[in-house]
Amino acid sequence: MARDRRDGGHQGVTRERLCRADDIAEGAGRGFRLGAGTEQVAVFVIRRGGALRAYINSCPHIGTPLDWLPDRFFDRSGEHLLCGTHGAIFRPDDGLCVRGPCVGRQLAPAPVVFEDGWIVLDLTSRENS
Ligand code: FES
Questions:
Q1: Which of 30, 47, 81, 108 is most buried as measured by Cβ atoms within 10 A of its Cβ?
Q2: Distance CA 116, CA 103 (A)
């Protein structure tokens, strides 16, 4: 059974409840760090235009987390995602970098599923591929 977890602390995460879908407001996002050591995975979930999208929280430039403050992924306009390290700008709908040092590269989608109102990180499909 999936657990409800915002922060990690255990290894070998395969399937975890992140939060309720309703917990993420329009134009907002939430970050989650699960597992530990080499097993750690960081993801974030955003809501824009009513749709939820999830990405691995690692900038394609040098791999740092995007959030410039905790759970702050959008730029001031609310139109794009912003990497707080060097200012790369990404389209929220597909993660494509449209300005900055990694233009043309994309954020990696995070494997999430939606179950009974929960957002669930599901790494089992990665293990089976
Ligand atoms: S690490 Fe994101 S723009 Fe450099």
A1: 81
A2: 37
Q: In whole angstroms, give the CA distance from residue 105 to residue 128.
A: 26
Ligand 1 center from residue 82 Cα (angstroms): 9
Ligand 1 atom closest to the Cα of residue 62 is 1
Q: What's this model's pTM, rounded to 2 decimal places? A: 0.87
What spacing in Å lies between the alpha carbon of 61 and ligand 1's midpoint?
5
Joined tokens for residue 33: 């760090």
Q: 2.40.50.430, 2.102.10.10, 2.30.30.100, 3.40.50.10140: which CATH number matches 15-127?
A: 2.102.10.10
Q: How confident is the model at residue 80 (pLDDT cuts 50, 70, 90)?
A: very high
The predicted-structure confidence for 30-71, as pLDDT tens digits, reads as follows 999 998 888 889 999 999 999 999 999 999 999 999 998 999
- Quote the strand ranges of the chain, DSSP E: 15-20, 29-34, 41-48, 51-56, 81-82, 89-90, 97-99, 112-115, 118-122
Count the Cβ atoms, other than its own, within 10 Å of residue 32.
Answer: 23
